């Protein structure tokens, strides 16, 4: 007779031979890569089933994804660049009367909008040109742009509205 403790650890029908111990690994669709524990077993299964013209799943298909710290850093720089654009809008609005004394109104509008668009253009350019570069290079260029594109009219006129 089984002890009551052993009954708690079993289920009626556990000895059924048709139950699989582990589910069979299904191959991933083309273009996907298995990661994590047991991924090498899935990759071997997929490689054995794959035709010669499709790349193996374990081959790198592009740059490695960014980690959490890198995503947070890029998010912080995105916010900084949005604030820089806002600073250029506010700073240029304060200097509008003085600037239009020395510039043609159309020239003032063109230069103001170029200044407002400079931070997003810098961010997008750095983002596109450093896709395959090291992460530190991308972050250094984003930091350099944040320093170079400071909205001086806003900073020098003060923060009073």
TrEMBL record:
The keyword Membrane applies. It comes from the Bacteria. Residues 18-31 have a biased composition (Low complexity). The chain crosses the membrane at residues 69-90, 110-129, 136-155. Residues 1-62 are annotated as: Disordered. The keyword Membrane applies. Residues 38-49 have a biased composition (Basic and acidic residues). Signal peptide: none annotated. Keywords: Membrane, Transmembrane, Transmembrane helix. Residues 7-17 have a biased composition (Acidic residues). This is DNA polymerase III subunit gamma/tau.
């Amino acid at each position: 007779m089984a002890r009551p403790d052993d009954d708690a650890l079993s289920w009626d029908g556990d000895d059924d031979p048709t139950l699989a111990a582990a589910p069979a690994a299904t191959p991933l669709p083309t273009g996907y890569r298995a990661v994590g524990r047991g991924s090498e077993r899935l990759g071997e299964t997929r490689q054995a089933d794959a035709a010669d013209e499709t790349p193996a799943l374990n081959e790198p298909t592009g740059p490695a994804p960014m980690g959490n710290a890198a995503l947070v850093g890029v998010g912080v720089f995105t916010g900084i660049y949005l604030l820089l654009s806002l600073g250029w809008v506010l700073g240029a609005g304060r200097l509008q009367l003085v600037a239009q004394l020395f510039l043609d109104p159309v020239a003032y509008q063109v230069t103001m909008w170029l200044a407002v668009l400079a931070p997003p253009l810098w961010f997008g350019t750095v983002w596109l040109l450093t896709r395959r570069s090291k992460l530190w290079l991308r972050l250094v260029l984003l930091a350099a742009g944040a320093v170079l594109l400071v909205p001086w009219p806003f900073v020098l006129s003060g923060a009073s509205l």
